[in-house]
Amino acid sequence: MTKRIGVGIVGASAARGWAAAAHVPAVAALEGYELVAVATTREASARAAAEAFGARHAFTSAAALAAHPDVDLVVVSVKAPDHVPAVRAALDAGKHVLVEWPLAVTADEAAELAARAESAGVRHAVGLQVYASPGARFVRDLIRAGRIGGVEAVAFAGGGDPLGGSRIYKDLAWGTAAGTGNDLLTIMVGHTVAAVELVTGARFAEVSAVTARLHDQVRVVETGEPIRNDVAGQVAVVGRLVGDAGLDGGAVDPGPDRGAAPAGGAVVSISLQGGNGGGPDGFYLRITGTEGTLTVTPADPGHYSNWATWRIRLTPAGGTPQELAIPEHYHLAPAGLPDGPARSVAGLYSLFGSAGSTASTGYAGSEPVELPTFQIAARIQRTLEAVARAAETGIKQRLTPEVVAA
Fold first, then answer.
1. 3 state SS of 236
2. Which positions ≥6 away from 148 have C-beta within 8 Å?
3. What distances in angstroms separate CA 116 from CA 8, 49, 256, 271, 345, one per listed residue?
4. CATH topology of domain 5-100+345-371
5. In what order do the strands lie in the sheet with 167-168?
6. Phi and psi torsions of 69, nearest 5°
7. Contacts of 246 (CB under 8 A, 6+ apart)
8. What is the mean pLDDT of residues 294-316?
9. What is the spatial distance between Cα 217 and Cα 129, in angstroms, rounded to a whole number?
10. Is 164:218 a contact under the CB 8 Å cutoff?
11. Distance in angstroms (rounded) separating the CA atoms of residues 378 and 400
12. Are 136 and 310 in contact (CB under 8 A)?
């Protein structure tokens, strides 16, 4: 019998939080995983979480959790400024690591963690759930197969709720301070950049940007209390992509009857606007190729799962739009999980567990899969810092060849 992967979650509060809403039910639904340990900053809350979630061990530090022999995989689900020490502790203990997005507050920190993880020889990933999205993976393969020819342009527009608007939920209010890694640019634009890169197989080579901070103060949704706001709530990015999927002479051959993409690479535009503290907003993604267009919208607008449940329409050049059903094998999460945070995160765990074979921890499978690794996280964070510089200076930023190739 294959050993189940022992999961230890740093930041698993029983009272509230992302770990309780997403990671705990995801682990419980997956046969190959078992929650064995939790860690919070206080002994009482750690014990309460262990009892509530059925974990055998409770700790007050990431280092103690990572050092326990029952823990194979350390999941870091704390505030972004606390990611680095928790990830370092896991790597020092030689444990596999899954950490929420962003990997670190700065790109330099993210690059340092990526280098450490490679040296440690462990599996590592960040919480970019779009990598496990059935719709995103299906669109990626449609583009790889040349269904729209060479990609010429990508346009994304969406709302930023629950970030960036005139109101903020109490649990997210700490992110209104600058440099926390929990604002519209870091979170929402970061996830969007990841989605664009995933489906096109391309990389951002240059970016221009405009940001706006329309509210010096925002109100806490639950109390109405006004608090200071130091982060932008509106972001618009224009850039150029180079890489695969028919871009700039990339690796995917669109076929003899399909056009090639322009040599300069495809143009991409991203527009994200903060909301008013409501639920998740919808989005619109349009990918234009030489031989057709793919249009993506949420299957259930306004629902949390709109990022994960995509409605996909393919319009061949000169043809009639057709809605495409996502084949069943693109769904990675267990069928019994309802749409929501746990389902998205469970898909990411499924990817993580099948990304190669590590007999010592019971990982099964040897087929290569595409994980959002620490290297990918560091590259995206470099791109986001280039976006911030472009917005601040008004000067187009060109990413170095090393960053684009990473």
1. strand
2. 142, 287, 288, 289, 290, 291, 292, 293, 294, 314, 316
3. 20, 30, 44, 34, 24
4. Rossmann fold (3.40.50)
5. 167-168, 217-220, 226-228
6. -65, -20
7. 143, 146, 149, 150, 151, 252, 254, 260, 261, 289, 290
8. 80
9. 31
10. no
11. 13
12. yes
Where do the domains of the chain lie?
A: 5-100+345-371, 131-329+378-391
Query: Which of left, alpha, beta for 138 (phi over 0: left; psi -120 to 50: alpha)?
Result: alpha
pLDDT digits (tens, 9 = 90+) for 313-352: 999 999 999 999 999 999 999 988 887 889 989 999 999 9
The string of pLDDT tens digits covering residues 155-186 is 999 988 888 889 988 988 999 999 999 999 99
Across 97-124, b (16+ Cβ under 10 Å) vs e yields bbbbbbbbbbbebbbbbbebbeebebbb
Helices and strands per DSSP (H, E), number in the chain? 11, 18
Secondary structure of 53-82 in the HEC alphabet? HCCCEEECCHHHHHHCCCCCEEEECCCHHH
Burial of 310 (0-12, 13-18, 19+ CB in 10 A): buried
Closest CA to 158 of 125, 124, 117, 188: 188
Side chain identity at residue 175, one-letter code: G
Indicate the CATH number of 131-329+378-391 among 3.40.50.720, 3.90.800.10, 3.30.360.10, 3.40.50.10420.
3.30.360.10
